[in-house]
Amino acid sequence: MQFLKRTITKEESRDTGMAMVLLILLLYMVQKREVLIAAAIALHVLNMTVPLIFRPVAVGWLGLSHVLGIVMSKVLLAIVFFLIVTPMGVVRKITGKDSLKLRAFKASEESVMWERNYTFAARDLEKPY
C-alpha cells in the first residue's frame, strides 16, 4: 500500500482537475444540458487558479488507477499464458518436439559434461566476454 502514503503533487492535482473537466464535457455530449458547460468552465477556472483543491480527488483517482494497473497486468499475463504459451506447449508435446534432447539424455548413460583439455593463455583473459 505504498501508493496510499505518497504525497500528491501540484501537477497531479492539476491533471486530475483536467480529467474532471473532461468527464463533465463528455457528460454534456451525452445529456446536452447547458448547466454542464457552465460547470466545466467553472471547474477549469478553479483548476487553473487553485489546482490543489483537487488533491482529495487525486488521491482516490490515482490510487484507483494504481490498483487497476496491478490487477490488469496480472490478468493480461494470465490470458497470454493460457491462450498462447499453454497451447504451444501442448502442440509441441503432441508432435513430439524435444528441443532440449531430454529423451536422448535420459536414455543414455553418458554425461552432459564435456571434457575440455585447454590451457589458458594471457590473451584469453584480456577480453573474457
Features:
single chain; 129 residues; mainly alpha; 5 helices; 0% strand
What does this structure look like?
There is one protein chain. The protein is mainly α and about 130 residues long. It is about 70% helix and about 0% strand. The protein contains 5 helices and no strands. Helix 2 runs antiparallel to helix 3 (about 35-50) and helix 2 (about 10-30) packs across helix 4 (about 55-95). The two termini are about 40 Å apart.
Brief synopsis:
With 129 residues, the chain is an all-alpha fold. The chain is 69% helix and 0% strand.
Distance between the termini: 42 Å
Low-confidence stretches: none
Based on CA inertia axes, which overall geometry fits?
elongated
- Helices and strands, in order, run as HHHHH
* Largest sheet geometry: none
Radius of gyration: 30 Å
The computed structural class is mainly alpha
Task: Compute the number of helices.
Answer: 5
Mean pLDDT: 89
Task: Write down how many β-strands occur, each being a DSSP E stretch of 2 or more residues.
Answer: 0
